[in-house]
Amino acid sequence: MNRIIGIAAVQVAPVAYDVEATFRSFEQHVRQLAASVPSAVLHVFPEFYLPALGSYDEPAPSGWASAVAEPIPGPTTERVAELAREVGKWIVPGSLVERAGDALHNTTVVIGPDGELVAAYRKLFPWMPHENSVPGDRYVTFDVPRVGRFGLAICYDGWVPEISRTLAWMGAEVILQPTYTRSIDREQELVLARANAIANQLYVVNPNIGGLFGTGRSTIIDPEGRVLAQGASGEEYLSAFLDLDLVATVREHGTAGLNQLWKQLRDFPPPFPPALESYAAGEIMRDLGPLRAPAARPCAPPTRA
């Protein structure tokens, strides 16, 4: 049985600070995708899309975050669930402003095709000092039955390699990373997305905001760092098939047939900080075959031209 899933990275822009108009646009995008790209069973939207965050040069109204915040589950997740049931798709609607007591979190959710709230993840590494959401305190993965395991990250999380590494260690074969970036560092983000895919031998799906105030360039990257799709600056849909058996192949045999990264981390780890001393106990290590280390021999001297 193959483990292939069709996905869509949805590069769109909200109607700035108009939550209801943005949700109507969201519904239209989901229905249009369901009709025009039926093989895409997982739709992933950008960070802060449904809360309708506007452009950086258009300051948010006073109290915007508090005004759009709601609990999870809550009214918005219920509306997304109804839409997911209607079209029969997995939906990651970007991120929401979650109210939890006195705290406001930047939280992404996963809604299954039956309308179930499958997972919720609070951004671990907010973009300080520009973002004042309260950091989360746990890593989150979820399983798509008969396909594989997915990890969740949000935007600036991609700058912290330990986050992607931990999700992979937990068994993630794909990282879904909704993003809102229109600053000059999008080029660096694209490098980091490829690096996280290569260093962890998994797929990275990174939809960014698009349209008039978005830098766009959403991207989908495979486990060896190849760019499967990349957007321009406007609104568009990026679709691709992810073959999760390729993740297993790359991890077993090595990137480019050479670098058996996870086996070496299991069997010959460097001196990690104390928190990582039990590295070999990670979920990813369970099904990997043996690492056949080369026999000890002197290093060959460099060859002179």
TrEMBL record:
Record has Nuclease as a keyword: no
UniProt KW keywords: Hydrolase
Pfam families with a match to the protein in the record: CN_hydrolase (PF00795)
Segments forming domain CN hydrolase: 5-244
InterPro entries in the record: Aliph_Amidase/BUP, C-N_Hydrolase, C-N_Hydrolase_sf
EC number: 3.5.1.49
Keyword flag ATP-binding: no
Protein name: Formamidase
